[in-house]
Amino acid sequence: GPAPPPPPLQYSLLLQHLVGDKRQPRVWDPAALGGIPCPPKSEEQKMVERVMESCPFKAALACVGGAAPARTEQAAVGWFGGFVLGGAFGIFTAGIDTNVGFDPKDPYRTPTAKEVLKDMGQRGISYAKNFAIVGAMFSCTECVVESYRGKSDWKNSVISGCITGGAIGFRAGLKAGVIGCGGFAAFSAAVDYYLR
C-alpha cells in the first residue's frame, strides 16, 4: 500500500530548537568562516595577559606614558597623560609664554636661548610630575572600582573621576573637593563616551 503521510510540522517544537530552551550553543570557529585559525594560548601568553590586566601595571603605564585605565585595548590611545604627555605639554607652554626671561627692570631685553631652554625644562618636568600623579591616581582608582563592581562600563570612569578630582581638590577645602569631583567626573564621562 501507499506510504503513510509524514506527520505535520509542529512550528512550536521547531522554535524551541531555534530560540527556545532546547537551542544548542554554537561554538564559533573562525576557520569555518574563512578566518584565520587561532591556536590555543600558551601559559606564557596567559601570564603576560594577567600581568597587563593587573592594577599595578595599568597604574605604571598611566604614570609613564598615559594609559586608558582598566581597558588594555585602549591603553595605547592614552587617556589622561602621564610623564611623557605632561612633559610635552610643559615644554609647549613654556615655548609660547611671552614672560620667559622677563626682567621688570629692563622690559625690552630679549631672553637668551639658555634662559628659554632652562624654563622649558623646568616647566616640562613640573607638568610631567603632575600629569603622572593624576594619571596614576585615576588608573588605580578605576581599576579598583572595576574590580569591586565586577563590570566594565562607563560608571567606572565616572566614579573614579569623582574620587580622583575630589581627592585633588580636597587639598584646597571641601568646596573645591566637591567641584573637583563633579568636574573630573563629567570630564571622565565625556572622554569615556568618546572612546566607546
TrEMBL record:
Keywords, comma-separated and alphabetical: Membrane, Mitochondrion, Mitochondrion inner membrane, Protein transport, Translocation, Transmembrane, Transmembrane helix, Transport
Domain of life: Eukaryota
Pfam families for the chain: Tim17 (PF02466)
Topology with respect to the bilayer: Multi-pass membrane protein
One GO MF term attached to the UniProt entry: mitochondrion targeting sequence binding
GO cellular component, one term: TIM22 mitochondrial import inner membrane insertion complex
Compartmental location: Mitochondrion inner membrane
Biological process, per Gene Ontology: protein insertion into mitochondrial inner membrane
Role description: Essential core component of the TIM22 complex, a complex that mediates the import and insertion of multi-pass transmembrane proteins into the mitochondrial inner membrane. In the TIM22 complex, it constitutes the voltage-activated and signal-gated channel. Forms a twin-pore translocase that uses the membrane potential as external driving force in 2 voltage-dependent steps.
Similarity remark: Belongs to the Tim17/Tim22/Tim23 family.
PANTHER family assigned: MITOCHONDRIAL IMPORT INNER MEMBRANE TRANSLOCASE SUBUNIT TIM22
Subunit structure, as described in the record: Component of the TIM22 complex.
Protein name as catalogued: Mitochondrial import inner membrane translocase subunit TIM22
Species this protein is from: Erpornis zantholeuca
Gene this protein is translated from: Timm22
